[in-house]
């Protein structure tokens, strides 16, 4: 999981954070020296913030929920946060301060959904094809980010006559439209270093199950890019390069968060629609990531894990980072034998130690992490094989979700047509069948994936159900050993335990 420290900082830095770009700027302050110095400080703040919230939430997951699950800012939501909601250097839907306010509010909503048990219900109520398609679409979205200039290797660029165009030239050769002249395409040395050392090498290490393969590729490219008198240096002899190199030379130091700590903006009256769109998208994707993927099973005490997750989202917004979620990379620790919260607590302590190596993590260039985004995107896209293609009412909405996310550079714009088309297509089919008395129905209806809004055991969480039935120690399940032994304080020694008999029979 360590790669998230530099990758998240790189992606979110593109938003500009609290740095202010004058509206009169024609190039979004790409050549504004003062703005670029502010951006450099922002990346250091984000490096500390990412490591700090990952340390806190991962440790708490192990301590309070006793689960070997690591948490950190979400890969996908961080890109949506930076590239769409805030936009490149603040050119998106809402300012950075309003975006972290949306994350702050979302965390509290998650807490409420968890306490009421609605979070699990919402995750299961979403059609399976849309859930799978969302992961694939986000994977392609991350791939485009990994290929572009701002947070990747610079292999593609936006064009005039076509939506995208092959790039791969060094930034100084870009023309006035931001395009690569034909004579310089695919000749950037940093791009090729990123492809071979950060991409091919990483994939080869992963093929042979070498531990830390992603981090190894990132570090190799970074080490190659750190010497100053080279064509691929990350520290050019400019005021911005000098400032970054002076910070890098400190190696071990604590960098306090200065510019993005608790910067919420609560006056959202002029951003109502955009604020709501960002909030709902954060909520939707977090429900899938935090509930549907790692916690696909309901288990007694899962509410504690959900609460840690939800609380981490709100606290993380105070650190200026996108929503926190459970990481699928936790499977690496589980596969090595990690079965309790001790695994997560040790991981959390490692994240805490990394806070003091901010000069290293903040000095990793984007071409070192670009291929990481592509690799993560490819792993997310593998769920495409599980989408039900036998029934067109499942396949078309899923395809729209997958395609529109990367094509519009927005997770939200991909979710809207996917969900709406699913509702319209399948509702119309249902109405036609009902109106015809069952005589007219889709030819492949039997191949449609089952869907229901009902949740086994009901929508309410078990503790609410037990409380409603008058169980005094409602926090203890009916199949608790002490409860079955008759030690519950609400039972007298001579009372017949019908529930106990029923539970044992079941």
From TrEMBL:
The chain crosses the membrane at residues 51-71, 98-118, 130-157, 191-208, 303-328, 340-361, 391-409, 415-432. Residues 482-506 are annotated as: Disordered. It is a multi-pass membrane protein. GO terms for molecular function: purine nucleobase transmembrane transporter activity. The keyword Metal-binding does not apply. One of its GO terms (biological process) is guanine transport. The keyword rRNA processing does not apply. GO terms for cellular component: endomembrane system; plasma membrane. It comes from the Eukaryota. Its main location: membrane. Keywords: Membrane, Transmembrane, Transmembrane helix, Transport. It is found in: Endomembrane system. It holds the Pfam family Xan_ur_permease. InterPro entries: Azg-like, NCS2. Belongs to the nucleobase:cation symporter-2 (NCS2) (TC 2.A.40) family. Azg-like subfamily. This is Xanthine/uracil permease. It comes from Extremus antarcticus.
